[in-house]
Amino acid sequence: MVAASDESFAAKENLLNPWAPAFRPETFGAKGQEYDGWETARRRPGADGELGHDWAIVRLGLPGVIRVVVVDTAWFLGNFPPLASVEACAVDGHPSPAEVAAADWVEIVPMSPLKGDTAHEFTVTGVERRFTHVRLNIHPDGGVARLRVHGDVVPDPRLLTGLTVDLAALENGARVVACSNGFYSAPDNMLFPGLARNQAEGWETARRREPGNDWAVVRLAAPGVVRLAEIDTTNLRFNAPGAVTLRGLDARRASLDDPSAWRELLGRTRVQPDGRHRFRLPGGREVTHVRVDIHPDGGLARLRLLGDLTPDGERLLTARWNDLTRNRSEMA
């Protein structure tokens, strides 16, 4: 969170809590009922008769193209805002709150009606550009439990080109595009930054009762050569897989659905529970996707695929960056 116009009843930081909004009845503090969300004071017209509105500015965890915004008023019934809109901007570097507030903002969700205790999902269309911050405007005041902003990560190529990077990192633009099972937690979790603090922060499948094994396919940040793989089973003491396999494919030359197109990067290799395993990979095969097979089931806390962007990968990243940032002034 960067700033908010008001947070008299409940802090703006609650908008970003990762868990589902909770409610405990009759939990009154010095400011009234305690809400798991952001809540502003009741607005009154000023001397000019204007009522105004409240707002909160959020720095996106990962800059990118915004596809969907969710404004969730869970548990707010007599105090939700009747209307809301969302704006976005792009500010390079490490700006101050004042610099962000003074940026050129683009409306991505027009003024829309809200209901109480409801998750409102808004699809963002017609704004194909990279953003770093969003501003939630509520009219005139009230409470919002959660704000979610979904989209496609657009990394800065200046921070990746010419370096050894994690080609499977979510913050570099990688994503899981297919998965056999995500019963307990989503496979994208294993691409998150940092270390997993518990089992829920990794990928975990249901117990497999049929033949075969579970798997996930990762679309890399850009075409590259994977040099080293890190398979992390931290926190998975009784539900780690017995072994893993890695295979790679260049989707520019073959289909993901063609089993014969996948080439081995790491043969079936035993792994231990609750530990980090590092494997140097032989060869220099250029790939766009990597499939991780876990035998027979279980979970991974993190998957790291360290390597180099190919010249073509660097060109693709740079071209996308230029395409999504070049028209900033015209679209603001």
From TrEMBL:
Keywords: Hydrolase, Purine metabolism. SUPFAM superfamilies: Galactose-binding domain-like. This is Probable allantoicase. Its EC number is 3.5.3.4. It catalyses: allantoate + H2O = (S)-ureidoglycolate + urea. It comes from Actinomadura miaoliensis. Belongs to the allantoicase family. Pathway: Nitrogen metabolism; (S)-allantoin degradation; (S)-ureidoglycolate from allantoate (aminidohydrolase route): step 1/1. Residues 2-153, 173-308 form the Allantoicase domain. It comes from the Bacteria. NCBIfam families: allantoicase. PANTHER family: ALLANTOICASE (PTHR12045), INACTIVE ALLANTOICASE-RELATED (PTHR12045:SF3). InterPro entries: Allantoicase (IPR005164), Allantoicase_dom (IPR015908), Galactose-bd-like_sf (IPR008979). HAMAP family: Allantoicase.
